Amino acid sequence: MKKITLALSALALSLSAATASASAGCDAGEVVAKLSHVTGGTTHPKVVAANNLADRVNKELDGKMCVEVFPNSTLFGDSKELEALLLGDVQILAPSLSKFGSYTRKLGVFDLPFIFKDMDAAIRFTNSKTGKDLLHSMDDVGFTGLGYWMSGMKYFSANKPLLVPSDANGLKFRVQTSDVAKAMISAMGASPQPLPFAEVYGALQTGVVDGQENTWSNIYTKKFFEVQDSTTETSHQLLAYFFMTSTDWLEGLDADVREKFLAIADDVTQEANQSVKAAEAANRDNVVKSGGKINVLTAAQRAEWVNAMKPVWSQFESDIGADIIKAAAGS
Ligand code: LMR
Description:
Helix content is 45%, strand content 17%. By secondary structure, it is an alpha/beta fold.
């Protein structure tokens, strides 16, 4: 009996130590906002933006609000974080726009293959009226969009070189939960396998999947290049994040704190999108310096990828809305 009591009090002590260290740096009386995300390393644009938000809030709202960042799926992985936000277990998130299919179909526009020529076109779209309206596409759920954080264009990697879509025939690719991404992989004659981000390296290493699609920043910081033959510079899709809070939490803040927090959130978003291209270029270099192989497409090879994936647009036109697709494609 005594042994059990001792074990239980040791457990209680270690739990309270864990709570204490998680809130280390926040003072009593401050509103604590936990920011959870799934990316890692030091050079990833989401890591940089999340840390910048925390630094700014912790300095400029000292005594009133405190942001704690939990990277690398250490608090919540991407299958649980949206639910956790609604339950109040986390207050700030920045999930990929490809992970909202159970809440809205409209954000699928960001996943349409080759809809954005480059990140500048995507930024122009997010700054347009249609793009800004989409920040409110989940108001009814209780999700408030604060802004879009760009991550980069996406590239395919596999356990063999992929130069034309038929090279992917019969292969299994890890995708995010997006139905658009699943349809795109099927259009290449390959099989989509949705998996949480934290499981991708292991799935590539053990052969559960043959390939994946991601940005240079994720390919480098998660070391996917170590367990893949090569990465092909397809730029077939955008990866960007929905920087968000729960509406209840935001509305519960004192008006002056909310106003200041929103102003900081906006600044951090502008800065993040200004530096994202340089971060992606640096992480591409990091992949090469670390021994990762890159396949660059000829114009004719690229045209084959575009043609193979183009039919995906019409499959999702009624879900997303023809007007939204037109606005994004014209950005
Ligand atoms: C992925 O799951 O591949 C990405 O969304 C991860 C991220 O947040 O960049």
